[in-house]
Amino acid sequence: MDEPEKVRGREDAASGHEAGGAEEAGDGFQLVIHGKKKKRAASGQDCGTAGSGFGAGPVRALTREKGAAPVPGAKVPFHDPSIPRPQDVYKIRVDNYKPFEHVWLERSEDGTRHVHPLENLPVEQFVDRNVPDREPVKPADLEDTPFTLVQDHKGLTELAKKLKSVTEFAVDLEHNQYRSFQGFTCLMQISTRTEDFIVDTLKLRLYIGLYLQEPFKDPTKRKVMHGADRDIMWLQRDFHIYVCNLFDTGQASRVLQMERNSLEHLLLHFCGVTAKKE
């Protein structure tokens, strides 16, 4: 018996084996409260008395029993040292020695605050208040929508051409911070009215901005995102892409005071699509 097992045995003996008859939960974990092991239900709630909850006392530990079966669905271990770092495979280099060039803003007349460069421009230059009512266009079924995985220069060139020929497209990014301090964009999803694209931004990191800057900054093309706060920052940081003419469905749902603001809810409410957010 190794040292941790001996320590656990002494702790169980000190507590009088009050939880000796408790069975292991389905996920292989037991909850230890005040020295007592309580079986955890499949729903993640305490299986003790109805009046006792997690507020009954501080949680000391959440331990995994030796030899317990792995959690269902966790087929690939997250912390796997054998997985190569994308920074090494795709030659992603970060220049940490470049000095920060501060751009000083003008101060207000009373000198109490800085003036944003866009503050003096009229709102009419940013918001088109004369947008006519339009009948919503229902998206085509996934089975009828062509899908393209972009992994090379040829595919990126074709994608840029197609984005130049449309007036609107939707964008979503996936970001990864595993074994990276700042993180990096690892996937870009783009959809037009007729096609879907997934761009491998690790393989094409050095070329994304060169090919896609123009359609993203074109003010005549509407870009649709959901909760774009982080996406805007990632596009600027990783690819030097700046977005003009953005419609954020997350902010629109808040303006409309909808019951929920998640993309999953909007897809179900407006499109009748049940998203599998796993």
From TrEMBL:
Protein's UniProt name = Protein RRP6-like 2
Biological source species: Zea mays
Where does the record place the 3'-5' exonuclease domain? 147-278
Report the coiled-coil segments.
none
Q: Where is this region: Disordered?
A: 1-58
Output the Gene3D superfamilies linked to this UniProt entry: Ribonuclease H-like superfamily/Ribonuclease H (3.30.420.10)
Give the domain of life: Eukaryota
- InterPro entries for this protein: 3'-5'_exonuclease_dom, RNaseH-like_sf, RNaseH_sf, Rrp6-like
PANTHER family for the chain: 3'-5' EXONUCLEASE FAMILY PROTEIN, EXPRESSED, POLYMYOSITIS/SCLERODERMA AUTOANTIGEN-RELATED
A GO molecular function term, named singly, is: nucleic acid binding
Pfam families associated with the record: DNA_pol_A_exo1
Record's compositionally biased regions (Basic and acidic residues) = 1-15
Could you tell me the Gene Ontology terms of the biological process aspect for this record?
exonucleolytic trimming to generate mature 3'-end of 5.8S rRNA from tricistronic rRNA transcript (SSU-rRNA, 5.8S rRNA, LSU-rRNA)
